[in-house]
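Hey team,

Filing this mostly as a record. A colleague (T.K.) asked me to run one chain through the structure pipeline before their review meeting, and I want the input and output archived in the tracker in case anyone asks later how it was produced. No errors, nothing strange. Just documentation.

Input sequence:
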Amino acid sequence: MVPREIRPYVYNNLFFGGIIMEKEKYYISTAIAYTSGKPHIGNTYEIVLADAIARYKRLQGYDVYFQTGTDEHGEKIELKANEAGVTPQEFVDEKAAEIKRIWDIMNTSYDRFVRTTDKHHEEVVQHIFKYMYDKGDIYKGEYKGHYCTPCESFWTESQLVDGKCPDCGRDVEEKCEEAYFFKLSKYQKELEEYIESHPDFIQPVARKNEMINNFIKPGLQDLCVSRTSFSWGIPVDFDPKHVVYVWLDALTNYITNIGYDVGAENEEFNYKWPADLHLIGKDIIRFHTIYWPCFLMSLDIPLPKQVFGHPWLIMSDGKMSKSKGNVVYADDLVDEFGVDAVRYYFLHEIPFASDGVFTRDLLIERINGDLANILGNLVQRTISMGNKYFEGKVEYKNNTDTMDEEFVRSINDLESKVTEKMNGLQISDAITEIFNVLRASNKYIDETTPWILAKDESLKDRLETVLYNLLESIRVSALLLEPFLPETSSKILEQIQSNDKELSYQTEHSYQLGQPTPLFMRIDVTKE
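Output structure:
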């Protein structure tokens, strides 16, 4: 690690010979979940995906800040609260607690869970609105158009699809009310130039092309940023009959919760911003790659480094919906199959840019095939042989064979292969790289036949070397699996009794093995 110029606000300093060695920061955020109901597995996928990235960055030595939370204002919340016979605050308190509970069940390592009803957030949003108004970027007018309450979005006649909301397909209603507007059109050229000069800003490329061709090039329309037809929102302090429209309120959570305030941003903000990655669903990429950058340009704040619009996790009959009766919840799956099995499915079965499909059959197939057989069986066989043949103590004896070279090379190459995939946000492919080594380990057992070596006393050192190689493969794989399967990784390292964090093959270990216990139980498909 090369010493860098020390900024005023420094986290997690490392001291070497009197020199401050600063970890490189990494700020990742999810979209904040809307508090209209319990999150299903499609919503939960995003927090698990972000968690895997955050954990891997920590594994690489980054000073990670991982933010998630809840979006709690808007007309839809007010309506749902009225239907439930409670105040909007009581309604969002209950829903936010439920969302946080699900995130915790999924063993996600967020650093801060934010809420847009927090007093500090509301105050800063008011300051931001007033600043933009004083700057001339917000002006009062009248909005007349089509409004979709579930999406909290206004649409022009030409944007409707068969007279319905182009995002969700639901009915829209005519709205006419006094409103404040943000001059989105003012920043069109600057936004186009930024996207052109920062080719990785919007990922994947298909999402970038969609934003440019479908929204930016046809011309940006000024954006409605206040409402008067409902009251559950942040009041515009200089015109209190207006409340701040949900997108200006919600998007600013990425800066209001790390110390930003108009003219008074603190050291924490200067250290953490800009965000390195906004991880969001592909359905809200327009708000994060058009509205949000233009808001930041108005505030003279640097833009986030990257926005990734991830694909969806859908059912075999399409998107999840209560009307279809096909909604699945993550906590129910965890109760049945365990948290790491569910995390594995989320992370392995959804490609980089294409929607993934959830079925119970495929989940069970992955548990039985990948987790119980390839991973669990390898760990149990290896530890059992170490205990049987060497009473649990296995050391490197340097009795090598030509077949060892390729196997050891695969262990040493694993970190760089996983890092390459993770840097490209190809999480599924990163996991595949680890399981390729686990498969190679099982093949190595078949080729070296330890049970035959054990019959010849003269081959004892060769047998111990084989088992040592397998334990090194398991150790390195377990360390690299931690971002994806944190509980399983910990169990493996406990069973092989290793606390070595080196991500490459080492020769100086002395393994004192514990007792093997199954990592994943096979599921009886017939009973299912």
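Quick notes for T.K.: The chain has 18 helices and 19 strands. The two ends are 52 Å apart (CA to CA).
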